[in-house]
């Protein structure tokens, strides 16, 4: 009967997690909110499908342990030292400003200074999972504010680890409070440092030579759990021990194997951790006192947004970038749940305030995707307004540049290459870019670039599109690229368009818009590297070049055939299969003339 109940609880966890995580991901709300929602529904405060809450929390702690071990693996000391200025500038200021302000705000709510300090630090953290996912999905991680966001998130992860060790010392000393054995902790740290440098590398090499994946995984688990146990035995956090072990092994050549082995365990147990957090969320608090909870949540997000915006301005980010920095980092973070839990265990935080602030952080995470979408819509509305209406002041293009024969739209990686080549031939061109951060960087290097939206006819008119003969469409965003191509086809058919495309589908869209010169951005580099691979495998250079040129020609012909039937999925698949079979047959017949054995390639002649 007991086994039946346990299986039912496991099924409830897996079933609700799979359904809700999939649903929340599809809605663009992220996996964490899906797990939190699952915990709310199946927990004792919801439908009560899982009754053994303490057991779930105990197992879920290992999710945090594995997470911090992987974070430690990624934080190589040399890389951290190289990023010290950015980390201390953006990350240090953000944590300092937010912690101080939230500590004072917490004390005003009637919380003791020690409790307020824990709350203030926890609320200063943002969600790494939410922010990085949103930045990556919108392809803004490499922008100026994207790099600043990453620096802040990384600094938060680094600072959160020692905080987990310090917080218990702020609590009440009771008979059940465990004292920290600092001497033992120092001995363990020295032993780990020496062991990781002298013994661990050789030991992992011996294990790897057995070619047993299961054994390597077992050693990885033993390392993490063993170090966590040692730290816990001297009164420190298991998570702190796992983090230290990860940092000490971050220089190991087996770092990636260790990370890959733990990733499935980390994902599952972190999911269980967020489910356990959801199980502890008391939505009844929102129903009982909606004014207090919503007031704290709104005040928290507004205040945090202003503080992060201020950090951006202090660090010389311009206003739009500082605004975006605040929007993407305004929510609370998953580490706040961990810190609240440690604070409550150490009796720094009362259960009532822990539950309230857990609910506040959860609500801020729910609101975060909505705020990002609203910010994008507001920016789009501003961009559509004329300068007189308060929109962005697009640069006025000089009369001398409005008569150039070449216009380049998008002056990123691809557009700059066009520009460099044209300059070598003394060919004048007009470059238009919509990313203000990119423009600021380019102008520091002496490039002349105009701020404007090339999809707007008035911008094209000002750039001299009527007099231009050639148009380089190097915009990275697919939707914007297609829009510009359609405008050129409808209003300026006399211009020859040379476009970069993201993939095959984007190529078809541009071809449909009448663009005759289209090149996929990765095709040439991929083909060139393939040719070098064939030569390295023993194929004579001349023969490798012939194979690659045949492949290139076949790929272009297949692209044209696929374009004709692109709207008929069945025919499209048939054409693709037939073309692939034809190419394989032709290359096979040619290969019979020059046999290539990838396993035993002939020695290359000098």
In terms of per-residue confidence, which ranges show pLDDT below 50 for 5 or more consecutive residues?
A: 172-177, 386-392, 595-606
State the end-to-end distance: 75 Å
Helix content, binned percent: 55-70%
Strand content: under 5%
Class computed from helices, strands and strand pairing: mainly alpha
- DSSP summary, beta strand count: 6
Spatial strand sequence of the major β-sheet: 3-2-1-4-5-6
Overview of this structure, please?
- The model is unreliable at 172-177, 386-392 and 595-606 (pLDDT under 50).
- The chain is mainly alpha-helical and 606 residues long.
- It has helices at 2-26, 31-42, 53-74, 77-82, 84-108, 113-124, 128-137, 144-166, 182-209, 213-233, 238-248, 255-280, 283-288, 290-314, 319-329, 334-345, 351-384, 413-424, 436-444, 457-462, 478-491, 504-512, 523-536, 541-564, 569-591; strands at 406-409, 429-433, 450-451, 470-473, 496-501, 517-520.
- 38% of the residues are buried.
- Helix 3 (53-74) runs parallel beside helix 11 (238-248), helix 5 (84-108) crosses helix 8 and helix 24 (541-564) runs antiparallel to helix 25.
- A 6-stranded parallel beta sheet has the order 3-2-1-4-5-6, with helices on both faces.
